[in-house]
Amino acid sequence: MIPLRRGGGQSGSEVKRGGKQVWLLPAIAVVFVLFAAFTIGALNDMVGEGGEVPVLPESIEGDAAQQGILERRIVAEGEARPEAVRELAERRAGIGETPQWLSRLATGGADVDRVRAALDVYRTAMDEEVRRLEAGSAEEARAVNVEMGGGVFEAPRWLLQGAAEGYEAAAVQADLTVYAGMMYVVVLSLVLLAVSLAVLFWVFARARREDQKALKESEERYRLVTRATNETIWDVDLRPGGELRWHGAAESRFGYSVEEPKRGPWWEERVHPEDWGRVISSMDVVMRGDADVWTDEYRFRCGDGGYAWVVDRGYVVRDASGEPVRMIGSMADVTERRRAEEALRESEQRFRGAFASSSTGIALVGLDGRWLEVNRALCGIVGYTEEELLSKTFQDITHPDDLERDLDHVRRLISGEIENYQMEKRYLHKLGHQVWILLSVSLVRDASGEPLYFVAQVQDINDRKDLEERLAHRAFHDALTGLPNRALFVNRLEHALIRADRRDHSVAVLFVDLDDFKLINDSLGHEAGDRLLVAFAERLEDRMRVEDTAARLGGDEFTVLLEDVSDVSEPVRVAQRIVECLSEPFTIEGNEVSVSASVGIALTARGDGAVSESGDPEGATLRSEDLIRRADLAMYRVKRKGKAGYEVYDASMNDAARERLQMEGDLRRALERGEFRVHYQPQVLLKGGAPVGVEALVRWEHPERGPVSPAAFVPVAEETGLIVPIGRFVLREACRQVVEWKDASPGGFPSGGLAVGVNLSAKQFQQKDLVHDVSRVLEETGLPPGDLILEVSESVAMNDAPLTEKVMRELKSLGVRLSIDDFGTGYSSLSYLKRFPADYLKIDRSFVDGLGRDPEEAAIVSAMVNLSHDLDLKVVAEGIETTEQLDVLREMGCELGQGYHFSEPLDAAGAVSLLASTRQTMRRS
After folding, report:
1. Which of 203, 207, 191 is nearest to 25 (CA)?
2. Which of 36, 40, 69, 791 has the fewest CB neighbours in a 10 Å radius?
3. Each residue's pLDDT tens digit, 472-483
4. Report field, pTM of the whole predicted structure over 0.70
5. At 289, is the secondary structure helix, strand, or coil?
């Protein structure tokens, strides 16, 4: 306990030291008393002996006188009576004790010797006289007296008289000596007493100094403790007129001085009125003695007028009659704790509100998998009521194929290997069907780190998974014909080449191209051309074996994969059937349409699955693209021969490869000669038609061939890597051109700036200095970063999703905007797509083309638009060519679009003229 008053008790060491000092007082007193008693006793003995000295001679003289009288009476009577003899013998005995008295004297000397000699003669005569008297002869007795002389009896008396006088003088001297000794003893005793008192005074003075030092240290510790504590220590006198005193944090915490005592109802006036009744009731319980300690939590008014929440604890001190006379205790400021508790309570209420009303399923799950709490959204996802779900575990409703993976995540989470996890899995609905969900799980632990329960968020992604499946199908299948597309065909071809190498079989690829299909499109329209392609695809599939694969690469180009080919005759027969199936015309929109096909055949050498470009089967691995290209070269041989037939690839067809090399050389020279141009296609707001930007498109003006289609040179440029310098040229030229337009007509463009979109090829995206190139171009041209939109195709983005995310974030840090181009033509992981820091999502023209005619196409585009908005992306639709397409896209909420409906790609002059005129028209309207 902290001392509540200053000057508290001594420490253990101090008490021990004080005990050692206190025992000296009674010890000295006892020694002094014993010494005084001993001294006084000795002096008394000395005085007693000195008093006996003058009495001794008188006793001897009296004995001699009495002896003489007795002797004379015996002589006078003439006989010795028995009584007289007995009396004489008693006197003899008395005289015999005289030397004993003499021996007690300290003087000694010749006088004593003479007295003793006389007494010896006297005793001898007396003994003889007594003997004769006892014999009955007084005469003989007297004769003895006469014989020994009459002086025998007188001599001792006179000698003793003289000795007594000498001894009396000696006794007087002895008394003086004794009194002097007594004075010495008294003085010595006083000195000893004075020394003892001095020692006692020194001892007690030292003890007092040590006690004062200990008291000072105790008070200092008390002050330090009261300063260091966060609590306010109080002491109140409960008697009339009593005071309340504070120590500790009263001043720093509550703004009241600790030096000034508080009197009267000072404390009561500062308790919050709403808390006063409860506080005084709880205090009365302690005052009555029904409890030992008073504790309460209430609001206390501070010096600045505000209230602080405090926890107050007090102990009552009672007098002998049991009446409370004093109360001591401590008061702690718990305002921050109360605020934290209130914030926690509000947070809990918000959590409960969000938990109950959230459209996302939320649950608390025990470590054993039991559902502890679930909200309505989760019940709706799985079809169970709350009571039904609480009686189950998450294992009960998890699809068996997903359970082990889920449990593995749970184990890693509990062990601390991961902090949380997210996964897509399937729940089993109460009605029996599976439900795809996105599960996010975290673990709640106690203060010591022990796991308590899981918090699970469950999002219904059935619609998303359906869309992914449809997009996956579209990613690997042609949207028009339903046949596998190039990606799926190449994938199957690669696996077929691996199997062929193992099984000692050959693989054949047929490249099919419809002859003069462009003429049908031009004459009957694109819709009729599409129907013809669909009809041809159906006939093509009918001529295939189950294990064969027919695919549409694009436009009017188809491919066929044949596995387990023993020799060239097998693919030749298939090619013949394809050519023959077109002998019967197609009926398109009531018109009979006849079409032929050119078929190129390429196959691997049997037994090794590999053939070099020169036809040498030794040592060169044949790639899927090589086989497709050879079939393509064979097909072009058919075209040159007159179409409507088939041709098997041989080494003489490498002319096409030489042509490709020629194309590559021309592309390199085109960069050096500046033969590339940039055209611009406007991008507009679908609501209102205001232009907000342009897309930069590269064009090649060959000095001999004239305009070369991007479809002809871009693949070659991509394959050879020349697309990187071409892309740099387009980026720099587009940025420079837009800045030039703005400088020339600052008021002729949108107030927010004119954005320019530039495509990034796969090769560019893989360049380590891409971000540096973009930054340098922006700096050189002066284009604001926000006016540049870099477009990355979906297939490029998903080729290496982690790299894509990293590069996009670095580009985003420059301030540019990003767009996912050609969305829907590749296979995107939507869970990864949402991590890309993109601003726009461009729907490929192949989806837009079917709007207004194909409900399925409309559903897919609508799902894409909704998905984009869910990912907080703006939507740009490519290839808008009709008003009907525009209206449908507007209704779906698509924000931006481009296409021939607004404008074809234009050179710089045409583009700026179109933009300016469109802005003026919109201002007038």
Report:
1. 203
2. 69
3. 888 888 888 999
4. no
5. coil
